[in-house]
Amino acid sequence: MWTSVLILSLVFWIFSNYYVASRIRMISVLSRLGKRKSWILAFTILVLIQALMTLTLNFVAAAVSFIHLCFSFTFFNIAEKFISKKIKGKSVHDILCLYAVLVTIVYLAYGWIQAHNIRETRYTVESEKIRKPVRILQISDTHLRTKYDTERYIKELEKMKKAGADLVVITGDYVDDESKRTSMEKCTKATAQLNPPLGIYFCYGNHDKGYYNNRDFTDKDLRECLEENGIKILEDDMIPLNDEIILAARKDKHISRERISSDKLMKKCNESKAVILLDHEPNDFENETQSGFDLILSGHTHGGQMIPLGILVKILGENDEIYGMHKIGKSTFIINSGFSSWSIPYKTGTFSEYVIVDFIPSGK
Ligand SMILES: [Fe+2]
After folding, report:
1. What is the domain extent for residue 206?
2. pTM for the model
3. 228 CA → ligand 1 middle, Å
4. What is the rounded radius of gyration, in angstroms, for the C-alpha atoms of the chain?
5. Do 36 and 73 fall into the same domain?
């Protein structure tokens, strides 16, 4: 599905460039230069802006910004058809083009703030199977890429530490193809400092092993670094946390097609105990409910990242839900919108977060 989305986005980006250029070349200053020169100048302006954005951010960010600009220009182009050609002697087209750019900047600035300000989101989940409450810190989708990601993550760990979690879980996409070894090592050491009484556990996401084998560390290096720092990796496996709770984790659906079924994983656990499951991608709700998992923690969706991606992904059936807490039967699913925003530095459909879950005895 993601290949189709990428191809579609690329086609849309090319069209966006053509459309935005066609609007810009009609601005009074450019239109006076004649058809050929105005097209060349409009395209030159767009290429320069996107080149600058690619150098300072990345190509995906530049393309996403221009797709948004295209939508904004389309809206104001429709508006232009209902307004007279001149307002107080000024060209309506010039004024609306300026509005289109300003609206896009304000909207993407909002998305930037949503992506870069990390919130703490709290949930309370009751269970009949436990007598002692357990506080869980869930970190997901950090996609550690830049020096800035590293510094921000380490800084936020100080806040997370104050939550006083008994258990820390990392639910995948901790690193990706763009991550650097130094960043991965620094962040892993810092995470280990949380040192919660019930331990720190890691389950793989689709990006953790790397798709293109072009980063300066291997999956083996990641495993060794996590283990050296006392962070335990769970893959289609379980571990008793205490005499009341079992923690289980699945392999990622897309990178490990041979992963065992949720039923088989549950058979490894003791059903009379509360079983918490880590599954990076929230797309096996029915089976995980029927298997009897009590609390399922996921990430992957980035909460939809940008409008309308969340709705699109749900309609296409890629994920069962996109964000938040969902109760199905006796199972509670929590989907974390992630700490980072991957290549797109905007989150207009959601915000960045880490999650605290108070897993408490029923009726308390
Ligand atoms: Fe993912």
Report:
1. 120-361
2. 0.92
3. 24
4. 24
5. yes
Q: Of 92, 104, 88, 17, nearest to 59 (Cα)?
A: 17
Could you tell me which residue, 163 or 341, shows the higher pLDDT?
A: 163
Residue at a domain's end among 59, 94, 115? 115
Give the pLDDT of residue 88: 63
Instruction: Report the separation in Å between the CA atom of 173 and the middle of ligand 1, taken as the mean of its atom positions.
Output: 5
* Burial zone of 13 (CB within 10 Å; 0-12 exposed, 13-18 middle, 19+ buried): buried
> Distance from the CA of 178 to the center of ligand 1, in angstroms?
14
| Domain total in the chain | 2
| CATH code of the domain containing 196 | 3.60.21.10
93-109 per-position pLDDT tens digit? 899 999 999 999 999 99
Residue type, 52: L
Q: Both 213 and 325 in a single domain? A: yes
Structure tokens at 355: 């999650």
Please tell me the distance from the alpha carbon of residue 32 to that of residue 30, in angstroms, as a whole number. 5
Regarding whether 216 and 86 lie in a shared domain, the answer is no
* Over residues 159-175, mean pLDDT: 97
Cα of 264 vs centre of ligand 1, distance in Å, is 23
Q: How far is the centre of ligand 1, averaged over its atoms, from the C-alpha of 252 (Å)?
A: 9
CA–centroid distance, residue 300 to ligand 1 (Å):
4
State whether 124 and 110 are in the same domain.
no
Residue of 76, 87, 85, 64 lying closest to 17 (CA atoms): 64
State whether 214 and 124 are in the same domain. yes
302-312 pLDDT, tens digit each: 999 999 888 88
Structure tokens at 109: 């600035």
Distance of alpha carbon 54 from alpha carbon 316, whole angstroms: 30
Question: Of 115, 131, 157, at which residue does a domain stop?
Answer: 115
Phi, psi values for residue 315, rounded to 5°? -60, -40
Query: Do 276 and 300 reside in the same domain of the chain?
Result: yes
Identify the CA nearest to 140 among candidates 173, 181, 167, 114: 173
Tell me, in angstroms, the distance from the centre of ligand 1 to residue 211's CA: 12
What backbone torsions phi and psi does residue 194 show, to the nearest 5 degrees?
-60, -35
Residues 322 and 187 in one domain: yes
Number of helices and strands in the chain (H, E): 11, 14
Q: For residue 55, how far is its CA from the centre of ligand 1 (angstroms)?
A: 25
272 and 200 within one domain:
yes
